[in-house]
Amino acid sequence: QVQLVESGGGLVQAGGSLRLSCAASERTFSSYAMGWFRQAPGKEREFVATSSRGGGRIYYADFVKGRFTISRDNAKNTAYLQMNSLKPEDTAVYYCAAREGYLGATVEYEYSVWGQGTQVTVSS
Hints:
Elements lengths: L3 E4 L2 E4 L4 E7 L7 E8 L6 E6 L6 E3 L7 E6 L4 E6 L8 E9 L12 E2 L3 E6 L1
Parallel strand pairs: 2-11
Antiparallel strand pairs: 1-3, 3-8, 4-5, 4-9, 5-6, 7-8, 9-10, 9-11
């Protein structure tokens, strides 16, 4: 089963940018749809963005539309989340997840593999 490792989190000022990476352990990465979720302190984990296997079908949560971009490089077995115009309310642990199949999903239970998470902190 594929394993996922996130990186790229950190501390950034409001209005800044970060790019998260999600590296997969196997060449079968291209057979998985990918998703990004986040969990803020005291809150439930929530959907952020998802990409189909080939990257052609993408969907975002309303609160990140126009600010975040999900992408993937199947040749590098890596998914990305480019985050621009960051706000303090974007502070959370960000997780990538893999789902077998073509299309991504917006709910956690559709994903069978999860990374360990990377902390993103946005200061005001």
